[in-house]
Amino acid sequence: MWRHIASNAITLLLVMIFLAGGVILWGREQYSAKGPLEAQICLKVDRGSTMNRVSRELETEGAVSSGTIFRLGAEYTDKTDRLKAGSYLLPEGASMAQITDIITKGGASTCGTEVVYRIGVTASSVQVRELDAASGKYMETVEFAPGSEAPEPFTKARSDAGTRFRIAIAEGVTSWQIVEGLKAVDVLDGAAPAVPAEGTLAPDSYEVRVGDTRASVIDRMSAAQTAILATAWENRADGLPLKSPEEALVLASIIEKETGVPEERGQVASVFINRLNRGMKLQTDPTVIYGITKGEGILGRGLRQSELRRETPWNTYVIEGLPPTPIANPGKASIEAALNPLSTDFVFFVADGTGGHAFAATLDEHNANVAKWRKIEAERGNN
User: Fold this and answer.
1) Reduced to 3 states, what is the DSSP secondary structure of residue 55?
2) pLDDT (tens digit, 9 = 90+) per residue, 313-327?
3) How far apart are CA 20 and CA 23, in angstroms?
4) Are 275 and 151 members of one domain?
């Protein structure tokens, strides 16, 4: 009899172990499986919050099928104590495992409020934006000029631990403009560094944290531009009249200042490459302007005939070939255009009245395009 009882007990124990193993396996599958979120949401984790509280909120929001499984999964993977305060964008269908990784990895928050410090060619601004949960895109709420009285949304966002901070550098800004702009970014620490060499900073969007130094941001921009230029130079077209990456950067900066139409960069690049190959002067106004301003602000008026004739190292109406330095910080697309221009016969271009340019291979074609542009200018002046 005792042998029979013992046999039954062992059988029961084995069944319980098997069932427990099945439950664990099922739980692990649920933890890693696609989640029930039909649209992305923004989850805010307050300071001092616990994984238990977060699991309940996730279950309430319909982000997880079981708060218990989520909590046990986080504990099983040793991530319960790694919870970080912030605002996090949870994507559609995120698994419990993905959500756990998102809210425990640390770093900058991924949704909620964002403050963007924009450093532009003609002006800078500070923009406060809020994430629209439905579209997953940031929507502007308020914008103001640096140095002016800060509106209440900015003051609130500035003190919120979940706010993201970003510095957006426009293509074509000068190094002096970047350094001056960084002085107004109040989340950064440290003195403004000396103005870096023109063209060596990559225009882009850089996420920063409160307490980052201005010098560290400059270092990031410099490293990014160095990498972009090195890659573009390595992949350059054959037969270009450019002797070094530095010359490519100079040409890229001119292309950047000559057109704001992305689709035109390759054509503009071809004009300058063709001119260099033929020994023609580049004759481009932005270089003349740089010779006047040295990149410290904008000219704010049209060029005078005397300035077009004045000899400076950057006046390409006077000098042969490229100027000695870049005239701005070009973006990646302009660098790539300089080193892989379109193959054309164009050696002239002029504004066409639509924001772009009309290109020409002969002087007669160019003169006809100029006449059309002057007619457009005259008609605009009469309106």
Assistant:
1) helix
2) 999 999 999 999 999
3) 5
4) no
* Angle, alpha carbons 33-35-39 (nearest 5°): 150
The CA-atom distances, in angstroms, between 90 and each of 39, 47, 52, 176, 332 are: 9, 19, 18, 39, 31
The total domain count for the chain is 3
Does a structural domain hold residue 129? yes
Q: Give this prediction's pTM.
A: 0.74
Grouping H, G, I as helix, E, B as strand and the rest as coil, residue 62 is coil
Q: Of 175, 192, 223, which one is at a domain's C-terminal end?
A: 223
Domain that includes residue 356, residue range: 230-382
Compute the distance between CA of residue 117 and CA of residue 177 in angstroms, rounded to an integer.
13
User: Closest Cα to residue 201, out of 188, 216, 218?
Assistant: 218
Q: In this structure, are residues 165 and 126 in contact, taking their beta carbons and an 8 Å threshold?
A: no
Question: Which residues lie across from 128 on neighbouring strands?
Answer: 115, 142
Distance CA 83, CA 105 (A): 8
